[in-house]
């Protein structure tokens, strides 16, 4: 998602894959920024005598990610509401939309608690996503190292990079596919306004399966999987370039600050590039929801064409401002929560 936890020498490969897969699968700037910070923290922690075990890392990162997402949930819901506005709205009305106006509408019509619609599903999504990502990466890493003949060789930069990108991408695809129904249900719950069609998580699952079939839980999966590769590549390259440039100019700056800043900027770059895919994914997740007529009947690329034709190029970036606003608080909350949990968990004897 994701800010699942993975700092420690025990899980070097799994850490990177989880980091890469999280933001790629969900298009979240906060996830991308946080994962880069956590990756840097992992590298630093290799020198520490007291290290977290695998379960403790997953637990600390899962809690940090869930807490951060809960704190930034109002902005996340506004992003979703903006993303799906063009599906059944008059285009002329969309030009009047603003974050403040939409936030006021939610407060007046739905109440303050409505800003957290769908957040429980997001929290429930964290642990299975991190677990599947971790396990999948370990399996893919072994297969790739065996195929490349580098099982017992360290320091081969090209081979390590290939394992990181390919293994991370495949782990992201696997985890996104396995947990995708939860993401779709989250979108359906968060996109509801005054009319409540889905009364909760279980009711949403039951209703979707009954009305749209089991495949209805996987609407928009193609857009998600298409974003994995570009997200990893852009985030990784921007982060490494920014960090190298920063350290060459200001070598004495705090490693934590460099990681937070470069992680946030790489997340912004990655999510800006893949935001149109995220928008299309959200809209396809809502296709046929609540018995409404389908809007995009010609597949993924047909949806892109339809949106550009009816809403213009700006329509592909509807809702990106609240996504940007989550960056600093989101990454900062992950940092503070993770560091606090790490200190607490290091006091507990590891079973590893």
Describe the structure.
The chain has 352 residues and is mostly helical. 72% of the residues lie in helices and 0% in strands. It contains 14 helices and no strands. It is globular and about 55 Å long. The relative contact order is 0.18. The model is unreliable at 1-27 and 45-50 (pLDDT under 50).
Strand-helix topology:
Layout: H1 12-26, H2 29-45, H3 54-71, H4 73-83, H5 91-94, H6 99-110, H7 119-148, H8 157-191, H9 201-212, H10 221-249, H11 255-285, H12 299-311, H13 320-325, H14 327-345
Provide tags for this entry.
352 residues; mainly alpha; 72% helix; disordered N terminus
Number of strands: 0
Give me the number of helical elements: 14
Distance between the termini: 26 Å
The structure class reads mainly alpha
- Extract low-pLDDT stretches: 1-27, 45-50
Q: How would you characterize the largest beta sheet?
A: none
Q: What does the oligomeric state look like here?
A: single chain
Mean pLDDT reading:
81
Q: What is the N-to-C order of secondary-structure elements (H for helix, E for strand)?
A: HHHHHHHHHHHHHH
What is the gyration radius calculated from CA atoms? 20 Å
Provide the β-strand percentage band. Answer: under 5%
Helix percent band: over 70%
Shape, per Cα inertia axes: globular
